[in-house]
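Anyone up for a design puzzle?
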């Protein structure tokens, strides 16, 4: 990836996080990135492709972290709840470290532009299903639970960055209990 393309993707993340998807323009992305907005069309066909590429990069980083935590924590010699908590808290902290990434991903997910990312998103959930499917009665149960867990995790952490909830031990524990109850109810 070229430096200008990276700068543009960084700027898309920042712009959407600050102003929402409907509030951005290619000119704004160019201004934030310091790259002439004419360059945008050298890297991306249109605004939709630029948003999708930014989503793939940002959400890909989150899913990479989730997969890493699953791979790492399954080796721990502790009970399932402890493994689940360790995976959750490390992912939770990762989400809250880059508030612009989280805001961008949530806003993109809830936008009309997400339609073009359906196959990509399904592939990410399939990766989770491959890792965890053995713990569920069916693949459909596993996919349902993974979707629910991702929705709860993203929406709960987004509530923190919006200031609707405090990132304190009580709230974090409540989110984990909700996730863990969904996880254990179906396996």
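Challenge accepted. My sequence:
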């Amino acid at each position: 990836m070229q430096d200008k393309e990276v700068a543009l993707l960084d700027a898309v993340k920042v712009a959407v996080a600050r102003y929402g998807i409907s509030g951005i323009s290619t000119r704004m992305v160019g201004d934030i990135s310091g790259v002439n907005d004419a360059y945008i069309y050298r890297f991306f066909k249109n605004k939709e492709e630029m948003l999708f590429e930014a989503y793939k990069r940002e959400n890909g980083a989150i899913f990479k972290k989730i997969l890493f935590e699953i791979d790492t924590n399954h080796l721990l010699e502790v009970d399932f709840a402890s493994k689940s908590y360790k995976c959750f808290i490390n992912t939770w902290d990762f989400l809250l470290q880059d508030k612009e990434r989280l805001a961008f991903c949530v806003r993109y997910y809830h936008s009309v532009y997400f339609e073009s990312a359906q196959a990509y998103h399904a592939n990410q959930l399939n990766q989770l299903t491959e890792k965890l499917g053995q713990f569920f009665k069916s693949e459909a149960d596993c996919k349902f639970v993974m979707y629910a867990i991702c929705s709860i995790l993203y929406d709960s952490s987004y509530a923190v960055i919006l200031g609707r909830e405090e990132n304190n031990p009580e709230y974090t524990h409540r989110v984990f209990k909700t996730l863990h109850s969904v996880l254990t109810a179906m396996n």
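A detail worth pointing out: The two ends are 41 Å apart (CA to CA).
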